[in-house]
């Protein structure tokens, strides 16, 4: 079950002492302060050493530290990467690199989250304040495609949470179902998100709605789904592609108009960031649905 | 008011305790904040659990389409029977509401207020559905979602291509094993009765015969009529008597017969497997099957690994799949690469001449690649593509095989010029008239011949009709026949035969060439020139005998009917006869 890509010899690592932890070659037992000693400060809650992966040369040790967002981690090595803990150890969903870490007796595996392929990862790396998907959350994911980001969301919410993945395309739906077979907290729904009443039997109330549908009537889709399934005070995270809504207008104007539409449907926006440098003319809007009136508390 | 709430576990009917709440729904959520307050607004009246996943699946699909499923219908009937007739039912889907109204005459309401109510119920679903643990519900939802998705994606088991790969592998294995067993049987039994092996070349027959006759001594009484034909059976029996094989014991023959049983069983199974493979291929990749055939298609898929893999290969790869060893060897040593791989065994490539196999293999590979892609990645495909492509290729084959006889563009002149230099084989056919030995004498033809010999009038006649021309020619023939003396008969017969054949040809030819042919004819039969001249001297002096004989003659020749009629008529002037002939030929 060992990761195939990682060789103990560390091909690229020889002589490449870049300072920090990356430079040291050899066994696990080395103390972290081997080289520059700057490592300790960096990882107070570090999960111990891991063999390199994810853009790093095989065999390098990396340190896993938790991210500000719960359920998300950072792998620090020669290059830093955003990772999530793999719920199905030993398997990659879309060919991403995996990092193995030994913590005491337990072996943990982390999967690298590629921000160029996933809008949510790009948003996290862009510094969004809250993603509202702590472990144990129920998430309604609209526009699940082949399930690459859905698998990461599933890792983040953990076995206690639930991800309802809605995807209309049949070809992508097949891959989604195959992914969902392995992960029991993903419920695949092959339906049009424009008609939430069609899958009302399968979905309960959710805490967060994530939408990456890339449709011109995106705002309506999200509001319909929110009305059906999003609890009061629940949050939404929407990825807006400007060229999809209106290719002639400027992106800022498009984002502003979308936000207005959302506000009309009681979806109150709280923050908006662009996904530079990972995507062009994309923005992510995070907000709350039917916020509880101030004074009563949520 | 009753509320219909569908869940993954089953249908729930709630009773709305306070109907006024519906009027003002903005603060409805307040009432549903805790389970206790929620239970004050709605009360669970009835919960109909789904008995198994199939029932749940059918119920969900019906809900998706907005139809009333059987279980829902039953439930509503029971509930409505108990409740008053004026009860209204609140449903989430207006379409479903309409359907219920139609079928059960139950008033249904579905508006935004109802949606709000549904929302609130959903929030407190766990509490309100008291008898159902939430984990159960989640598990059911998961299972239902998977089965529903499968149903949507039409994950039909006959679309799995692994079966094909395995079946082809098994077919090859079976063939090998069968061959081994048969060789062993032949060798083993050959000790006892070697001549049988030489008589019967077909393996299955051989084995069957062994089963029937056992040892040689039983061969005489044995009845092999339903396995073998009479002569072969006789041969076998004869050989059994004079065989030079050794004797073997009962035990030995028993074992050999067990082996024969195995062989028969395996060959039967192989045939069955082949049928299975064909039906699977037609179900999974209809277009590819039509183009290259079932076995070749199955081998291609097996070679590529899966149908999707085969679809990813470019057409040039499909062309040489199976000839990798030759390909890489040629690439390394900078030689000519192979032109075909597994595709060579397809029917279309097999039926062309060896010069064209390379071209056709390339064309077929291109179309096969397209067909594979359509089959692998398309949804609900028919067989039109495969049939169309096959037709195209067959047409192309026929055009190529003809050679370059046709110019696709250009005037007809070039074709005529082309034909001038193109030798046409003259087909000589045996004339029926050759059979007739009795000479005939006809009066009528003489005149025609006389006129026919005149050069300018000949072409005129011919221009009128081909049949007319042929008539003239034939009459010439007949005329030559008339003037028969015994030695000349034979010569005339020959010439008659030749001329009869030439008449067949002359019909096809153009105007200019026919007089040439006639001249040729005349030149060929130099001997007959004399009799022709002799005949021409005859005039009406020829008696009626000729007419009769002409009648009989014409009955044998191809277009004799018209002429027979003509000859019956009394001899009249040439022109009249020509006219008659013309009119008849016009008919």
Automatic annotation (TrEMBL), chain A:
It catalyses: L-glutaminyl-[histone H2A] + S-adenosyl-L-methionine = N(5)-methyl-L-glutaminyl-[histone H2A] + S-adenosyl-L-homocysteine + H(+). Residues 7-57 have a biased composition (Gly residues). One of its GO terms (molecular function) is histone H2AQ104 methyltransferase activity. PROSITE patterns: FIBRILLARIN. InterPro entries: Fibrillarin (IPR000692), Fibrillarin_CS (IPR020813), SAM-dependent_MTases_sf (IPR029063). The keyword Ubl conjugation does not apply. Keywords: Methyltransferase, Nucleus, Ribonucleoprotein, RNA-binding, rRNA processing, S-adenosyl-L-methionine, Transferase. Its main location: nucleus. It is found in: Nucleus, Nucleolus. Residues 1-60 are annotated as: Disordered. GO terms for cellular component: box C/D methylation guide snoRNP complex; Cajal body; small-subunit processome. One of its GO terms (biological process) is box C/D sno(s)RNA 3'-end processing. The keyword Ribonucleoprotein applies. S-adenosyl-L-methionine-dependent methyltransferase that has the ability to methylate both RNAs and proteins. Involved in pre-rRNA processing. Utilizes the methyl donor S-adenosyl-L-methionine to catalyze the site-specific 2'-hydroxyl methylation of ribose moieties in pre-ribosomal RNA. Site specificity is provided by a guide RNA that base pairs with the substrate. Methylation occurs at a characteristic distance from the sequence involved in base pairing with the guide RNA. Component of box C/D small nucleolar ribonucleoprotein (snoRNP) particles. It is associated with the U3, U8 and U13 small nuclear RNAs. Belongs to the methyltransferase superfamily. Fibrillarin family. NCBIfam families: PRK04266.1-2. This is rRNA 2'-O-methyltransferase fibrillarin.
TrEMBL record, chain B:
One of its GO terms (cellular component) is box C/D methylation guide snoRNP complex. One of its GO terms (biological process) is ribosome biogenesis. One of its GO terms (molecular function) is snoRNA binding. InterPro entries: Nop56/Nop58, NOP58/56_N, Nop_C, Nop_dom, Nop_dom_sf, NOSIC. SUPFAM superfamilies: Nop domain. It holds the Pfam family Nop. Residues 410-434, 446-467, 480-587 are annotated as: Disordered. Residues 284-402 form the Nop domain. It comes from the Eukaryota. The keyword Membrane does not apply. Its main location: nucleus. Keywords: Nucleus, Ribosome biogenesis. It is found in: Nucleus, Nucleolus. Residues 575-587 have a biased composition (Basic residues). PANTHER family: NUCLEOLAR PROTEIN 5 NUCLEOLAR PROTEIN NOP5 NOP58, NUCLEOLAR PROTEIN 58. Belongs to the NOP5/NOP56 family. Required for the biogenesis of box C/D snoRNAs such as U3, U8 and U14 snoRNAs. Part of the small subunit (SSU) processome, first precursor of the small eukaryotic ribosomal subunit. During the assembly of the SSU processome in the nucleolus, many ribosome biogenesis factors, an RNA chaperone and ribosomal proteins associate with the nascent pre-rRNA and work in concert to generate RNA folding, modifications, rearrangements and cleavage as well as targeted degradation of pre-ribosomal RNA by the RNA exosome. Core component of box C/D small nucleolar ribonucleoprotein (snoRNP) particles; the core proteins SNU13, NOP56, NOP58 and FBL or FBLL1 assemble stepwise onto the snoRNA. Interacts with NOLC1/Nopp140. Interacts with NOPCHAP1, NUFIP1, RUVBL1 and RUVBL2; NOPCHAP1 bridges the association of NOP58 with RUVBL1:RUVBL2 and NUFIP1. Interacts with PIH1D1. Part of the small subunit (SSU) processome, composed of more than 70 proteins and the RNA chaperone small nucleolar RNA (snoRNA) U3. This is Nucleolar protein 58.
